[in-house]
Amino acid sequence: MAIVGETTRAENDAIHVNVFGMSDMGQVRKNNEDNFVVCNLSTGEASLTPSLRNHRLGPRGTLFLVADGMGGEASGEVASQICTTTVPKRLYENLKSLGNVSETNFVLLMREAIEYANQIIYHKALTDLIFRGMGTTATAGVLFGPYLFVGQVGDSRAHVIRNKQMVQLTRDQTYLNYLAEIGAELPEGPEKDSRKSILTQAVGTSEMVDVKVTYTKMRQGDCLLLCSDGLYNMVKMPEILAVLEGTDALPAKCKTLIQKANEQGGTDNITLILAEVAGPGLPPAEVTAEVEFQEFREEDFTVGT
Predict the structure, then answer these.
(1) Pairs from 115-120 (Cβ < 8 Å, separation ≥ 24)
(2) What is the spatial distance between Cα 179 and Cα 189, in angstroms, rounded to a whole number?
(3) Which of 103, 92, 88, 107 is nearest to 145 (CA)?
(4) Structure confidence by residue, pLDDT tens digits, 224-233
(5) Rounded to 10 degrees, what is the CA torsion of 268, 204, 133, 135?
(6) Helix (H) or strand (E) holding 91
(7) CB–CB of 91/110 below 8 Å?
(8) Contact 274, 225 (CB under 8 A)
(9) CB 94 within 8 A of CB 109
């Protein structure tokens, strides 16, 4: 029997997640090397069944992950599949074994799960010539209480949409961005430069991987978008935002965005996850509230700071 006070407190802390995802081969590629996964980390359920498409956030959170494979033929597809299978399973098992988990430990376990997938892909490529050189991007958004933690390797992106604004929480780990970071001279028209898609790191291409983590605090009515470059290279941000601001259900929005990417060339595989969050466990929506995010630091979640 539930105690009345406990039931009321649980309802006051409730966060509801409405989510959908979709992947498409595009108009040019011969196979789809992208993969995605949504996983309820409290139950281990990883699919898009009705119970997961609309669920209440559990105490161990929910994972959203997009992986864009590379390596040609079947290799990229294998790498992204290993990533989207391994990361949720590893994270779920580690969270379950610990019981109560702090925000800091949660982020460390998310990083470790991606690093673990990196090791599996890397060693598979080393031991089998068919898979030599394969790898994948990995952009994982994990909702843990009101916080959204985003772990990134590669150039798949994470955005939060709020108050008609679309804010990118990730930075593409590309050669051109690397040049910008070190202060080197950039080419004219970087959007048309052939090096804009050259990654500085990917999951599985080297023995070690540096998972970049940012985080933000979500509000009621916020929308999360994770996507591969097959979407954002084809469809401009204002077009994407216009679709997301519409009144269609999430499956229809996913379908519309993929259709737009294909209509504008569809030169790559197209994958996206959309998630809407609501409920009294989140701060209320405010028309003046901007999406504020920063790089994760352990001291941000230390008691007493």
Answers:
(1) 115/208, 115/209, 115/211, 116/86, 116/87, 116/90, 117/82, 117/83, 117/86, 117/87, 117/90, 117/203, 117/204, 118/153, 118/203, 118/204, 118/208, 118/209, 119/207, 120/82, 120/86, 120/204
(2) 14
(3) 103
(4) 999 999 999 9
(5) -10
(6) helix 75-98
(7) yes
(8) yes
(9) yes
Q: Which domains does the chain have, with CATH numbers?
A: 16-172+200-301 (3.60.40.10)
Q: For residues 18 and 36, what is the distance between their CA atoms, to the nearest angstrom?
A: 16
Angle, CA 169 vertex, CA 164 and CA 173 arms, to 5°: 135
Angle at 76 between CA 72 and CA 77, to 5 degrees: 120
Residue 124 has a CB neighbour count (10 Å cut-off) of: 18
pLDDT in tens, 79-130: 999 999 999 999 999 999 987 899 999 999 999 999 999 999 999 999 998 8
Contact yes or no for 268/233 (Cβ under 8 A): yes
Total residues belonging to the chain: 305
Task: Dig out the tokens for 130 from the structure.
Answer: 């068919």
| Two tokens, residue 53 | 């498409």
Question: For the whole prediction, is pTM greater than 0.85?
Answer: yes
